[in-house]
Each structure stands twice: as C-alpha cells, then as structure tokens.
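Lecture notes, unit on protein representations.

Consider one protein chain, 502 amino acids long.
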Amino acid sequence: MHPLREFSHILLHAFRNLMPIVVVVAVFQLAVIREVPDGLLSMAGGLLIVAIGVALFLQGLELGIFPIGKNLSNEFAKKGSLLLLMVFGFCLGFAAVIAEPALIAVASQAESISGGRIDGFTLRVLVALSVGAVVALGVVRTILGHSLHWYMIIGYLLVVTVTFFAPAEIVGLAYDSGGVTTNIVTVPLIAALGIGLAVSIRGRNALSHGFGLVALAVMVPMVLVQLYGIVVYRFGMGPESGTPAVALATAVADTGPATLLQHLMRILGDLLGMLGDVLPIIAVILFFQYAAIRKPIAHLQKVTGGFILVIVGLYAFVVGLKLGLFPIGRSMASQLIALDTLLYVYLFAFAIGFATTMAEPALIAIGEKAEEAGQGRLLASRIRILVALGVAVGITVGVHRIITGDSIHYYIMGGYALVIALTWFAPKYIVPLAFDLGGVTTSEVTVPLVTALGIGLATNIEGRNVLIDGFGLIAFASIFPIVTVMLYAIGVEWLKRKGEAA
C-alpha cells in the first residue's frame, strides 16, 4: 500500500477511536450538566491534534520501531548469549522509561503536591531501574520457557505485603507509577522483544512465552516506589524545599502574550525535548546494532523516517493532551461534583473509562499482536471490549473510593487477591496476555484524563487529601482488565469442555 494511503487509513482509524470520548463528554455536557464548557474550541482542537499525533506515531512505529526491535531480538537469539540478551533487555527497559512523558508528569505532580518530600527525579530513576531489571528477568523467563503463573503470583503477593506496611501517601502514587511505565513507546518495544524471542526459539509459543514482559514491567515498580515511600515517610523527612515543577511551569507560562518568534522557539524547544525522550531508546538500539551485532541497520532511510514520525507524533499528542484531555478531565470533575446527585459521577467514570480504553493506541497494537499470535483463538476487537469493560469497572470503583474517603490499602489488596486467585484457575495461555493487557490500559490517552479526573475529584470534595486520594485511579484501571480477560478465558474453556462432554 502507498504510504500516503496507508497513513490516511491510520488517521481515519485514530479519529474513529477518539469518537467514544467525544460522544461521552458531549452527552454529559448537553444532557446532564447542560452547560457549554469554557474553552470548548481549544478542547476540540486538542482532540483533533491527538488524533493526528496517534496516526503519525503508529505509522512511525510500523516503519521504524517494530522492525528493528524484532530484528535485534532475532539476532541475539541466534547468537545464544544469555548475558548479552539480559544487558540489552535492561538497557532497553531503562531507556524507554527514564524519559517517559507520562511518568515525568506523574512524578512532577507528586513532587508538587507533597511539597518536595517526594523527589520527582528519584522516583523516575527507581521506576526506570526496576523496569530495566524486569525486562532482563523477562528475557530469561522467555528463554527458559517458564510459565508466567509463578512469577505473577509470587510477585503480587510481595506487592500486597509491602502495601500493608506502606504509608497512605505513597500507595496510590506507587501503583500509578507502575501503570504509567507501559506507554505508547514502551509497550511496542517490549512486546516486540518478547514476541521476537519466543518466535526465534524452538519450542516456545508466541502467546504463552512472548507476552508477559509488560506485566512484569508494571509490577516491580510498585514494590520499589512503596519501599521508597516507607523510607521517606517512616524513617526520613525527605527534601522539603525547592520550586515544585508544576508551579515553575505555571510561572514560565504566565509571562504574558508571546510573539510569533517565541511560539516558534517554544515549538522547536518542545520538539527537541521530545527528541530527548526518544534519544535514549535510539542510543541503545544503535549501540547494540553496531557494537554487539556489528551489522548495519537494514532499510536505514525507512527506519530513520519512522523514528522522525514517532517524535513528531508524540509531540503532537502531548500538545493535544494539554489542550484537550487535561482540561476535559478537570472541568468534568468539578462540574459533576457540583450536581445534586453523585450518580452522574459514577456514570461518567464508567463511560469515560470504557471510551478512553477503546481509543488507547497501545491496546490496539497489543490486541493485533495477540490476534496474530493466537492463530484464531483470540480476536483483537473482543480483547479491546473486554479490557475496556474492566477499565470502566475499575475507574468506577476508584471514584467510589475517592467519594467515600476509604483507605486505598484494602481496595488494592482485595483486588490483587482476586487476581492471584484467578491466576490459579485461568488457562495458562491467557495469563501472560491478561497481565500485559492490564498494563497497556494505562497509556497516553487514559493516564492524563484519568489522573486529571482523580485530582479534580479530590480537590473538589471536602476533607480529601489530593496526594492520598487524588492518585490511584490508574491502579484500578490496571487491576480489573486482568480480571475480565481471565474470567472470559475461564468461561470459554468451561463452555468448550461442556460442549465436548455433551
């Protein structure tokens, strides 16, 4: 297919995936709130830019990141060096996460809200180190052919145990930090590494052994960030001073009307910043391509073009978020809380959870890969609906917790106890995919809107602490898709056995 025609198809697909968000917000604004929100044109423009950004990014993904990721995995598998594969996995995981925009946003918000007690850069380094270590561990699991069951059961038992001792101020943030590691860049890279390895090694199954790296990348940061919180809040004071990142950004932004040259300079600076986000990944790929494999990159011009599209697409996406998704989340939270009944808050949480997940580019990518690997057993459209239902239920439960002011500890521990129990009964082929799908729900579309909704609710409800109650919605959005996908697989297997018996 011609590149322009292919891009037009991807762009149409991106618009179609964003339509549920537009429909949900429009219905609530017109039928429930009956107000036209301030900055409506800016929000609409933001959503338009988001669609264009997603399309550019997905096009770049297919041209650059996916092919080179699979090629590196295949070459390392042929070399048969476990140590080399582990080092590559660690570097790739660390590089993909350390400059992740969603993680930077969450870390800076946490630093600002905590008054500097939680250090944003320390948080990012801890998360990046844990993801790097996890990807290295996941490579070993794929090579040795281990079942993911035991990794996840033991891992989440550890997560729940640490949660029991962690201070309330860090729990929601820790689970959210785990969720935002799996973004629109990291998921395709890590998925390509896992699937590429599984396909390259005889006796490995792409569905059972190729998936699971994303799930591990979500789990381990939760433990490390909670341990960091225990150190900061129980055994040390942590830094108290410094200009919060959010306040600094506001101060810089409010310097008066900008000239055309200043706008152009700002755009150039933002693009260079986005290049900085992707640069660690490019550096890791180039180093291993030329220093370890010692082969030139095939179709270099095509791959370079792909990376440029990724950078431009990400930039457009972030601009669209600031203009569209962030303001929508904050505005809807304050407007719905002001109504006489809380029923509409729950309905909006469910509807927006479903809509944002159906529009999630990382979920679209992983769903298509799962359909290919499943060879007819799984449909990408069905996977997306199951995951979207799980996210909708999860965000509704999370909103209920904010409204009631209940402790997040019991909700999280209960949720993961259910996940651990289902892991015992679920068919083995679905477990890695189910946990991966729990991770990919919290990517570039979902995180900004859901984070803005949570912080908006905590800000507008009297007696709520923004640091304790505002974070945590992303955690609920990660737990319940695992439950819905596993329940579906258990149900399908049961009906299959029942049909065979009949």
